[in-house]
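Journal club side-thread
Mid-discussion, someone asked how the predicted structure for our own chain would compare to the paper's figures. Pasting it here so we can look after the session.
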Amino acid sequence: MAVGCVRVALAVLLQLSVWLPVALQCSVSEIQTGQVIRLLNIMVQSENSSAASGSTPNPSILLALRLASHHDSDTERGMLARLQVDAVKRVQEGLPFSSGTVALYCLAMQASCADPSLTPAPGLKGGKKAMDLRKLLEKKLKEEIDNIDSKNVPLTNYYQVSLDILALCMMGKPVTSHSVQRLIEASDNGGFSYGEKYSVDTASVAVLALTCVKHSIKAPDRMVLRLKILNALKCLIKNILQETTSDGLIGNLYSTGLAMQALSVTSTNYDCSRTIQTLLERAGSGSFENPMAASQITPSLENRNYLELNKLDCKDFEKTLDGSVLPLAPPTAPEGVITVHYRVEDGIHYSFNDSIEVTVPVGSSLLQVMEEAAKISPAKFRFTVEQSSWGPFVTSIQVLAGNTEERTYWQFLTGSNALDQGVGDYKPYDGEYIVAKFSTY
């Protein structure tokens, strides 16, 4: 559980101001590099398939590929072009484009040596040939902060607000002290928790954002803000470390990569070798076959972080990915069937609580369990999904749909523990009890 942080006296803060984080050396060994290349190949193959099918590119994957030591330049250049086209299309056609998504697009473009403020956009009104995504992000962040000021919550969440501040800072755009202060206040006052669960992902991106802002502060009249940031960073790192498990994971399997970035840029000592060992073990067992999941750990496995985007070489890369580096044995199809106990529950209005036992083949995903339940009893177990960067995201069950304004969503649990994988990736075991609970955050 995260702890609140008491404001530190100015004298103590002045002592802290000499702290200049330097990234710790924490990365895979040379003989382990092949496992990283395998994850990079998973992302490249996914994006090539996505391009062939006309699907939306994933900026988080492009970020990870650009930070890697080995590259497929053709895939990366193609992703950049698709991201630019998609960004312009979203703006021109009024398609969903949340602040955090705009921020990720800007970061991915920067990492690809492209200026987000000069995004090619032929056919714009007024004869303009480029769209300024930086200005769009400034506008999006202001809307988030205005909503915090009026309703005490952002339009989206503090993970996206942190991404917004990080992206603007990385583009060299001064972020208002008010925006930074609102993020710091949220970190102090429980804004990074969902129910009783502390969001290591949010805290980690906030650390990256605040560290970037701290480095950018030069003016004497902003030194008080810098000292507040230093205090907030110490508190955030303490909370992140408190989420470390006995096997070295931080938060959960999929938040560990971002947490490692946060610990690296703040020169925090922790059992890095144990964390890497666990990540590689889990990668070997197939936990990062989802390309988005792979993108969250590959930078940290090579001791890279998002604050290094502006330092990347824009020339052609000498090292290229070779899909034959790690030949993969064809997966063997498991045999047999399992029984899963599945329950859907309205945890807000208490309007229904329905259970069913479902028999599916060994190795089936939770999504397949849900589909089988919906076939057996459509009235009780019908559901809808939307595709997200992490795969299928459940938007409704029966007649209840998640709502961002009401901050409701469908949470999936095994026993009393929230799942750390999506329904398309999680594979239940025989006899497992899975609950889909309509909840608030």
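Post-session note: Residues 6-23, 323-330 have pLDDT under 50 and may be disordered.
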